[in-house]
């Protein structure tokens, strides 16, 4: 089968389309014929050896797939060849077939495309865990979303609105602001590109505070990090919850005196570890996501679909932080 392989650490330009053997379904596993694989920021990190996990090379990146069951292993029940499925696989999705633990798969609803299905789980499951379990978001809360036009950012807008929050979306361009408003944001902020000096950092904090109002934000959702983090934290409200989701702009250093002055919490969000430690709670969240999807309250936005041969270009777009919504690679039809 064909796979887009990382043979040495490096950027997207190092990926090569090659032939590897077909996977076999082990006990408790399902082999999925991959139709679509969405691209997420961990795909940038994993090929550069900067992710939490370093697979043995050569390997195919691609952590989120949709496809059709090809075969099932010993002990698997509930799945049969031909079933349409979606799942999070960590890596290996940019290949024509991948072996997956059966418990990590979910049925793709009828009427939903493979591209849509591949764009649902990672961003929305991360976000619903972040907002509900870590951020304790409730109706009437004020929510600031950084990087609000990316996959997790748009998911945070939609889920924030679904749970009754007032959502302020912070983005880096007018085009991204339009996408955030389309997703339901009540207000948008267009910020400059980092790095910031002290005056620029203070000005950004003032922007965040003005949009947040006198009480500040109850929850801040930060999948960006870098120089954006401290100005955002300065705008948090009393006993607010600051959600640390990712660091494409760099790992920030926060002045901890702010947490004392605001009596606020800085909360890490590691969805993969949460899902492994509490699979039942994660499954409940995913059931909720399917319900919200069927009700039209969330809708994965796929803005570009790349041919399999161009999968490296999709990862390059993600690395450049220029994508709006989700990027999907069509592996096969």
Summarize, please.
The chain has helices at 41-47, 114-118, 121-134, 151-162, 174-182, 198-212, 229-234, 257-262, 271-277, 279-294, 311-319, and strands spanning 2-5, 16-19, 29-39, 64-72, 84-88, 97-101, 105-107, 142-145, 166-171, 187-190, 217-222, 236-244, 265-268, 302-307, 326-330.
List descriptors.
333 residues, alpha/beta, seven-stranded mixed beta sheet, 11 helices, 15 strands, globular
Could you explain how this protein is built, in words?
By secondary structure, the protein is α/β, with parallel strands linked by helices. Helix 8 links the parallel strand 12 and strand 13. Helix 3 packs across helix 10. The two termini are 14 Å apart.
Provide the residue-averaged pLDDT. Answer: 96
Q: How much helix is in the residues?
A: 25-40%
Radius of gyration: 20 Å
Largest sheet entry = 7 strands, mixed
Specify the number of helices: 11
Distance between the termini: 14 Å
Question: How would you classify the helix and strand content by structural class?
Answer: alpha/beta
Q: Runs with pLDDT <50, length 5+?
A: none
For this entry, what is the oligomeric state of its chains?
single chain
Fraction in beta strands: 25-35%
Assign an overall shape.
globular
Question: Could you give the topology of this structure?
Answer:
Elements: E1 2-5, E2 16-19, E3 29-39, H1 41-47, E4 64-72, E5 84-88, E6 97-101, E7 105-107, H2 114-118, H3 121-134, E8 142-145, H4 151-162, E9 166-171, H5 174-182, E10 187-190, H6 198-212, E11 217-222, H7 229-234, E12 236-244, H8 257-262, E13 265-268, H9 271-277, H10 279-294, E14 302-307, H11 311-319, E15 326-330
Helix pairs in contact: 3-4, 3-10, 9-10
């Amino acid at each position: 089968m064909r796979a887009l392989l990382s043979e040495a650490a490096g950027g997207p330009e190092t990926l090569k389309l090659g032939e590897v053997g077909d996977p076999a379904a082990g006990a408790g596993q399902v082999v999925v014929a991959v139709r679509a694989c969405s691209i997420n920021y961990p795909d940038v990190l994993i090929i550069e050896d900067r992710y939490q996990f370093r697979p043995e090379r050569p390997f195919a990146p691609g952590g989120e797939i949709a496809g059709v069951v090809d075969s099932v292993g010993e002990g698997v029940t509930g799945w049969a060849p031909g079933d349409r499925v979606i799942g999070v696989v960590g890596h290996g999705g940019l290949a024509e077939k991948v072996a997956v633990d059966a418990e990590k798969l979910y049925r793709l609803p009828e009427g939903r495309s493979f591209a849509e299905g591949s764009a649902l789980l990672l961003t929305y499951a991360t976000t619903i865990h972040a907002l509900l379990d870590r951020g304790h978001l409730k109706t009437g809360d004020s929510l600031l979303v950084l990087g609000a036009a990316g996959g997790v950012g748009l998911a945070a807008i939609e889920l924030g609105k679904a749970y009754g929050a007032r959502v302020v979306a912070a983005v880096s361009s007018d085009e991204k602001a339009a996408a955030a408003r389309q997703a339901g944001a009540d207000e948008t902020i267009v910020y400059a590109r980092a790095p910031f000096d002290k005056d620029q950092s203070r000005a950004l904090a003032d922007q965040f505070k003005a949009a947040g109002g006198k009480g500040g934000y109850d929850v801040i959702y930060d999948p960006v990090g870098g120089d954006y983090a401290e100005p955002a934290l300065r705008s948090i409200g009393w006993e607010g919850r600051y959600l640390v989701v990712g660091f494409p702009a760099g790992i920030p250093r926060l002045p901890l005196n702010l947490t004392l002055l605001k009596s606020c919490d800085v909360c890490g969000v590691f969805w993969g570890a949460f899902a492994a430690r509490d699979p039942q709670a994660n499954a409940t969240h995913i059931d909720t996501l399917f319900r919200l999807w069927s009700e039209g309250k969330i809708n994965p936005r796929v803005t570009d679909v790349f041919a399999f041969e161009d999968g490296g270009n999709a990862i390059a777009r993600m690395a450049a932080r220029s994508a709006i919504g989700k990027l999907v690679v069509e592996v096969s039809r």
